[in-house]
Amino acid sequence: MLHILDPDEYDIAAIQEPYLDHTHNSRASPNWYSLYPKEHYAKPEDTRSLLLINRRIQTNNWTQIDFASSNVTAVQMQTPSGQVLLINMYNDGKNHEGARKVTQYMRKMARAHNPSHPPHIVWLGDFNSHHPMWDEERNLHLFTRANLDKAQAIIDAMAIHDLQMILPKNIPTLWAMSTCNFTRPDNVLASSSLHEHILECKTSPETRPPKTDHIPIITTLDMNPGRLEDTLKPNFKSADWPKFRKSLSEKLANIDTQHEVQNESEFYRRLNTLTLAITDTIESVVPKLRPSPYTKCWWSKELSQKRAEVRKLGRRSYTLRGHPDEPAHRTYKTARNQYGTMIEMAKRTHWEEFLQSVDDKTVWSTHHYAVSAPSDGGKARVPTLCLENQLDGPAMVAATNEEKTNTFMKTFFSSPEPEELDNSDKEYPPQKFPFSTIMNTQIK
Fold first, then answer.
1. Position 390 confidence tier, pLDDT thresholds 50, 70, 90
2. CA–CA dist 128, 126 (Å, integer)
3. Domain of 154: which CATH number?
4. Which of 248, 269, 289 is the last residue of a domain?
5. Which of 88, 133, 190, 409 has the most CB atoms lying inside 10 A of its own CB?
6. Residue 339 has what pLDDT?
7. Cα pseudo-dihedral 167, 170, 175, 179, rounded to 10
8. What is the pLDDT of residues 261-313, one digit of tens each?
9. Residue 270 belongs to domain spanning
10. Mean pLDDT of the chain
């Protein structure tokens, strides 16, 4: 899934029932911030929701919202078109905790916000509900009284909070691995104020990762989340060093080096001139490098060919979803299983070959992999800091980068102590030994 998730194209990825390893971490890459529910750090086994935020979006433009539920992660984005509250929900089919927590929060938010400027709302995720309003009619067996009652709670919330279903009806979002039937437990809802900003909401059956049964849903909004462009890095490995030295020598020839430095300002003037000459030479001579977000040292041409084959079979199986007896479904299932096995084997083989090739230099890299603190690989970000609780109001928090910086400054760097007044009458004890200047040879 991370391979498909192009950071040049997508801003947010909402995942339900995420994979968690034995250290209770999911998987990400440095291109993404991982947002877990707060409850994840107390009961990680209950986590059913996860958000990935593109690292190019300015961190001042979004804030994680706490729903006090392992089934819900939410983020509030600041855009030129107003605030957007995106809620990623997993709705348990038994107790509906996700929908209940979200509905409670929406009621509180409706009372707290200015009714003339309400935030835009997006609900998305695994609702685990079936209804003729969004499911295909051929799935009549799913429209039981129990399922219709569960779905009615979602429909009532849509009416109360003015939400519209933006993923069109009759588009399935799940392929049952046992029966090969296509159903629609997932949905995307948005407030009517977002209607003019919605460009597209569709599924992508051919990009469904192996060993998963849910189909990715792609939603495109015409809103600017405040992206920053990636800065290109100099590729020193491909630099033409003779050309570099020649160019740098020409720039250094103009620097005055005839007389000694007389004072501090002269020193810093020369230092800045030297630094500018080096940086200008790097900028003009050294080629630029933009690392690919998809670099995988274990990937092979065989995996690329198999992936193309699986996607082609997936499109055909999806087209024939109304005919469950077609051989195309079984062929697709077999190819997907083979593709998943090939990926596992490629990763294992690459790791074993790396361990066998360890020498006196790479052993330290191996040691770093083995003893580093467990992480999902995502980019780190300081969360919203709770400063203090007020008895007669909400808790004070530090949400912006400036507020967090000031909080850390006050915490780690206390204000200097007031200077003592000069007291000439104070009596000091007699000197124990004569003071002598510390010499450089002693320090060495």
1. low
2. 6
3. 3.60.10.10
4. 289
5. 88
6. 93
7. 160
8. 888 988 898 899 999 999 999 999 999 887 666 667 888 889 989 999 999 99
9. 233-289
10. 88
Give 407-429 pLDDT, tens digit per residue.
999 889 877 777 666 666 778 88
Does 390 fall in a domain?
no
For residue 285 the two structure tokens come to 């001579």
Say what the pTM is: 0.77
Domain co-membership, 141 together with 273: no
Whether residues 38 and 102 fall in one domain: yes
